[in-house]
Structures are given as C-alpha cells and as structure tokens.
Amino acid sequence: MRRVVVTGLGMVSPLACGVEETWKRILDGQSGAGPITKFDASRVTTKYACEVPLGDGSDGTFNPDDWMLPKERRKVDDFILYGIAASDMALKDAGWLPEEEEDKLRTGVMIGSGIGGLSSIADTAVLLHERGPRRVSPFFIPGSLINLISGQVSIKYGFKGPNHAVVTACSTGAHAIGDASRLIQLGDADVMVAGGAEAAICEIGIAGFNACKALSTKREDDPQAASRPYDEDRDGFVMGEGAGIVVLEEYEHAKARGAKIYAEVLGYGLSGDAYHITAPSEDGDGGFRAMEAALARAGLEPADVDYINAHGTSTMADAVELKAVERLLGDAAEKVTMSSTKSSIGHLLGAAGAVEAIFCVLAMRDQIAPPTINLDNPAVKPRLSLAANKAEEREINVVLSNSFGFGGTNASLVMGKVTD
Amino acid sequence: MSDVADRVKKIVVEHLGVEEDKVTESASFIDDLGADSLDTVELVMAFEEEFGIEIPDDAAETIQTFGDAVKFITEAS
C-alpha cells in the first residue's frame, strides 16, 4: 500500500488565526471562550462560546478580507470562509500550488462540516417567511452546502482530482483525513487537501444543542472555566468554530519534491455504536473498536502509543472514553499522556477532528503534550496522565486522535514520525 | 445622470465589486462586468428591492446591460 504523509497545516481557531499562534496559546494554557458576540444571545440558555477572534489580522486575529473579497464573501456562509482560509494556509505551508495540468489532475479535496451553513439556512428561512420566496438569494444553496468548501478550494486552485466531503457530525474532520488518506493509498490521488470547518455559533445552533442538553450552561460568570474535561464540575461542552486543514501526500511524491514532512498517517479506524442518537454506548465499545482498528491498520501495539488527543468534550461521556482508552492500553496506560484540547478551544464539531489531528502532529514535532486546562478537581482516577493544567514535555513518536459523533459514529487516527 | 441611473449604478458597483467608471450605458453585466448567471439573478433582486417593483423572469432575461436596467426600471417605476 502507498504511504501517506502530512506536508501542510492550516487552521482558524477560537484562539487565533494560524497554526503556530494557536499552538503557542494552547501550550500556554489559554482559553478561547467568552461571551457570545455573533448574535444577541439574550434568549438562549448558554450565552458563551469559543468564537474566532475577528480583527485586522494582527496579533492572531482573523481578518476576513485577508482570505476572500467582500463581494465573494457575501455569497458564502462563515464555515466556507474558514475552510477556504485554512486551506490556503495549508497549501502555502506545503508549498503545493501546482501549475502543471497533470499535478492538478492528481490533487483532490475532501473537506467536510458537521452542520454546514446553519446560520444562513436559519436567516433565509426567516426571510422566506417574512418576505416570500422571491427574496431568496441565488447564492443561498451554494453558500450553505457542506461540500462547497471542497468545491470552492478546487475551483480556486484548479484541483481536478477527487472532490468529496464528509458529514459525520463531530467525527467529520477525522473521517475526512482518514478517508482522504485511503484515496491516496489506493492511488486515486497523489495529494489531498483534507479536514473540516464549522461555524454553528448562531441562535438556532445554540438553541438546538441546548435542547439536547449537550452544552455547558452554568459558567456565564466565567466562560473560560466552562470547558473542563474530566473535571467534577463539568456541565457540557462549549461550542467552538473554525477550521483545520491538512495537506496529505503520497510519501514518494513528497520526497521527490523535497517537501517538509511533518508526520505519516499510519492507521485509521472507523466504527459505529448502534446504540443512541446522541449518547455513546456506556461501555465505550464503539470508541474502543475504532482505536483498535486504527492500531491494527498501523501494525502497532497499544504500548507503542505515546500521546492521545481525546475526544473529551467536557460532558459525562469523558469518563466513557477514558474507560475505553484504558481498556485498550492495559498496563501501557502508565506511560501514556492523553489530553483534551477542547478545554482550550471548545468543541469545533465538524472541524474538531482535523484541528486535533494537527495538534497531534505538532505535539510530535515539538515533543510536548498540550494540557487539559481547568482540570482542578478530577472526576476520574486515570492510570494515564491527563496533562492537567500544564503541557508535558516528553518523548512522542506515535499519536492517536479520537473523534466521536452524534449517531454513534467513531473515528481514530494514528500518526507517527516518518521513518524510512 | 438620472436619479434612477445613480441608484442602479451604486447597486452594480456594490454587488459586482467593479469600478464605477466601468459601469457605462452599454456595459454588459456578464461580458464586461464579470458577473455570472447567479450574479445577474441577484442583481435583479436588488433592483426590485431598491425600487419596490417586480421584474418578471422573462423581462429579467432582457436586462443584459446597465442601460437595459436603467431603461426598464425608469419605465416600470
């Protein structure tokens, strides 16, 4: 089977626009949470979230004008804007802006989203109700469809390979990277731009997740303490937004052009819970089987894993995942560090798996495990380290990233340093 | 230039992101001002909104240039 490596990274996160700035702030233990500013939150129960910091582009802020002309931006939902921005960063980081037709034919895109243009759909529904169908914009549909990040990126750079999009709720980003890797392994493409994007911080999004009893509600006085995976006082996830994009490339292709190689995608495992629409099965068996399959595909043993980026949403399900991880690792748990970066940036839903895969790559590059912040009063007694409130410098050669989504959909990615 | 022409020009400049001096009497939205078929649908909607008129689909198809738009709207409003 052909080998797949990561050669480019791009990110828009609630901590910053950009991979390195976000990573610096993650390691520093910062939180991206604050009062909701994107809409009037007076009617919804949860009034805080992890929003992308808007600004003039300096000091890690996100300036929409840097990524799309205003006249084009008007035609797309924010999840597409974030996806295009992160894709641009990843492609420039990879140095992959091909001009030859053959290269364009061999480059594909697989960028997904959990929900897509929720805010645009809600606004247009109101417009339809109040003003009638003739006022619905011709850009409403192409500006809301989930696969239109892939479409836009393909058009912008002329990529004519596989053009696909994943929709598996909070597993989207991980599934996109895993599925895109498979396409390269099987020879459908040599390069894939893969990941996820989300922008669901809008009134209907918060109201919907509040109705599911999934969001934190009790920390209006201190939003930065709201996302607290594994902590006794956790009360739900904090909604985040943004995008994570990686450039995946066939190993020989990357070597031949002298690309900077961050990591190798070694294994990818998928499973279904067949249990409940929003809750994981109580024994965590679905997550366990996804991790087990990813390791088997990588040809590795549980004892080979050094760092795990947990799904860890700051809900009751944290303990279920931990149980599954410790069942997988056995005695090897003693030497593993697992953390939830959702403690810093909240839950980016369809972008989460991609953003977290990037953190795994950086953890390996810098030999440091990012912290689980706000872990003051652990509700669990783990055998592994949760990197509570402080990044852990340690040897990291193999990483595993978990993503679990509504509908009982699970994905695990295993990545490692490239060895010949 | 008439009041109608000024208002139409403002909409065209905003929606298509073009320089004002490019929006001449004979400028075609698609051939000269970079619009695609979806842009022209949106332009017509913006004209309807601005002038409080209804432009039926078959009439909209005849509005190809800035001059066409000004003429149609002047007659309709």
TrEMBL record, chain B:
> Which Pfam families would you find in this protein's record?
PP-binding
State the PROSITE patterns in the record.
Answer: CARRIER, PHOSPHOPANTETHEINE
Principal localization reads: cytoplasm
Mind telling me which GO cellular component terms the entry cites?
cytosol; membrane
Q: In which pathway does it act?
A: Glycolipid biosynthesis; KDO(2)-lipid A biosynthesis; Lipid metabolism; fatty acid biosynthesis
Alphabetized, the UniProt keywords read: Cytoplasm, Fatty acid biosynthesis, Fatty acid metabolism, Lipid biosynthesis, Lipid metabolism, Phosphopantetheine, Phosphoprotein
Task: Specify whether Transmembrane helix is a keyword of the entry.
Answer: no
Tagged with keyword Magnesium: no
Query: What are the recorded Gene Ontology BP terms?
Result: Kdo2-lipid A biosynthetic process; lipid A biosynthetic process
Residues modified as O-(pantetheine 4'-phosphoryl)serine:
37
* Annotated Carrier domain residues: 2-77
Regarding how it is modified after translation, the entry says: 4'-phosphopantetheine is transferred from CoA to a specific serine of apo-ACP by AcpS. This modification is essential for activity because fatty acids are bound in thioester linkage to the sulfhydryl of the prosthetic group.
Q: Where in the cell is it found?
A: Cytoplasm
Highest taxon of source: Bacteria
Q: Which GO terms describe its molecular function?
A: acyl binding; acyl carrier activity; phosphopantetheine binding
Coiled coil where?
none
Q: Which NCBIfam families match?
A: acyl_carrier, PRK00982.1-2, PRK00982.1-3, PRK00982.1-4, PRK00982.1-5
Q: Which family does it belong to?
A: Belongs to the acyl carrier protein (ACP) family.
Explain the purpose of this protein: Carrier of the growing fatty acid chain in fatty acid biosynthesis.
Q: What is this protein called?
A: Acyl carrier protein
